[in-house]
Amino acid sequence: MEKLDKILVCLKDRHQAPWLLSYAGLISRVCGSRQVHLLHVTDIAEPSKQVGLSQAKEPDAAELSALADAHFRGHGGEEIACRSIVESPMVAILNYALDQSADLVVMGRRGPERDEATLARRVTMKSTCSVLVVPRSTEARIDEILVPVRNSECSARAVEAACRIATVTRAKVRCLHVFPVSAICAESEPAFAEHLALMLKATERENEILLSSVDTGGVAVDCRCAPDSAGRPAEIILETVYREGASLVVIGARGRSGAAGVLLGAVTEHLICESPVPVLAVKNRSACGCSTGIVRRKGSASRMALAV
Fold first, then answer.
1. In a domain, 285, yes or no
2. Alpha helices for 86-227 (secondary structure H)
3. What is the domain extent for residue 185?
4. Helix-strand-coil percent breakdown of the chain, rounded to 5?
5. Is residue 212 part of a domain?
6. Rounded CA gap, 28 and 73, in Å?
7. How many Å separate Cα 274 from the centre of its chain?
8. Apex CA 139: angle with CA 135 and CA 143, to 5°?
9. pLDDT tens-digit map of 52-83
């Protein structure tokens, strides 16, 4: 996992501030971030009446600076930047992250049915850096990390990221490998048992290969396997989150190449929109293209205050 020196925290309104900034502050401390950027975005597409109403509830520059100082100051010689932008949220977030060479984008999500879930999914799909999506009212703690895995480079980066977080927080790290089993074999109990045993053995071998390729930093990693005969890996992962009391999900995400980008896996998309706990989608920036495929709007307004 690349070091998270520069963190971009995206704030849509002051209602997100308590839980989103508390968790972002925790991540900043855990990662020893050198720069923290607090970005407040007002959607330029909102009708003027709604914009006027929302602006009455928006934090001003002084409040943004106060929020940033309260949650991020004192983590070790860091720089804190606060900025407000009137722009399309996705355009603003992706362009700002690219301009500042951010290592991590932190976003809030109030519910699976709200615009934040769609925005979080789209930003994660297009971003050239890792993205952390924090659900509403999340408690600022990391004591149980769940890492959905396969034997892939994406999963290796996710396990490494989870272990680095665990070295600071002393969290338990548990990998979950959901593997498919034939629904046809399930109709015959003897055949299914044999098929399940073969698939389980192959999956356990994949887990061994995966862990042998990862620097865990001495963190003990518990690997578990879960059969899936119904084609619902995301639901199985979420069931495990609830059952095991996981406080963070870390999953590998494919990087982007070219203007169109690469679609997220269906499991990653589902978790970003539905998970009851924060989801960290880990990307490999060195493998991502430098273009987000996003066109800047002319005439976007911004205000910036920098404190060092």
1. no
2. 89-99, 115-126, 153-169, 189-212
3. 144-246
4. 40, 25, 35
5. yes
6. 10
7. 12
8. 110
9. 444 445 667 788 888 888 888 776 556 888 88
